[in-house]
Amino acid sequence: MELRQLRCFVAVAQELHFGRAADRLMLGQPAVSQQVRRLERELKVELFDRSPRYVRLTAAGERFLPAAREVLAAERAAAALAAELAVPGARTFGLGTITGLGERLDRILDAYQRHAPEVRVELHSAPVQERLARLADGRLEAAFVRGETPADTDDVRFLPLRADELMVALPARHPLAERSELDLADLAELPLRLTERRNHPALVDLVLTACHRAGFQPVPGPASSTLQDTLAAIGTGTPTCTRPTPA
């Protein structure tokens, strides 16, 4: 088992798409597919259910994913320690990130570098529940999360950073798309595409609560995967809507 095999496996597990995983890793798609196949042969188990329409983790893949992430986290910790040994006095700061920060993340990192030039920031991308678990046990120093500010716990303190507008994505051909602003109640009849709650409970709860406050129970649409695929499905299929991230 090689680290590059695990990196390819984790990237595909997060993207559920070999092409996007390859782009993320800056590799060719055949190379990513080959590394995952080698890992499967090594483990003697299928990690992904592949079809022309989708890529999904098998039950074995779901169970193996946390272990693979732990190995890669251990590799990063070893690399950070090596960097500290090479530059005495250097420190690292583990920061959990979310999609959609865009240029805001660049500005945050630039400001932090000016504030603490001796600290090297390490960015970690992971599902929100894993981000919070790493934060609680000290593997991360801070993490971005999206949703209403929850109550602090004994392990984690939540601080509001900024408020984003609640946006909706509609098919361009839909009559509501001609408006510049909408009331949430206008969307009551349209199926709503959201990620599964286990993937991002704070964001899903935020959207559903906003719908309830607007006086309706949203019609559930197909579960969304990546934002790119969800927007493509909205633009070409039966009229549905989603709350995109980022706005």
From TrEMBL:
**UniProt-listed SUPFAM superfamilies:** Periplasmic binding protein-like II, Winged helix' DNA-binding domain
> Does 4Fe-4S appear among the keywords?
no
What keywords tag this UniProt record?
DNA-binding, Transcription, Transcription regulation
**Entry superkingdom:** Bacteria
Among InterPro entries, the record links this protein to:
LysR_HTH_N, LysR_subst-bd, WH-like_DNA-bd_sf, WH_DNA-bd_sf
Q: Which positions fall inside the HTH lysR-type domain?
A: 1-58
The record's Pfam families line, in alphabetical order, gives: HTH_1, LysR_substrate
Q: Is Cell cycle a UniProt keyword of this protein?
A: no
- Write out the similarity annotation: Belongs to the LysR transcriptional regulatory family.
Name by which UniProt lists this protein: LysR family transcriptional regulator
Q: Which organism is it from?
A: Streptomyces cirratus
Q: What is the lineage of its organism?
A: Bacteria, Bacillati, Actinomycetota, Actinomycetes, Kitasatosporales
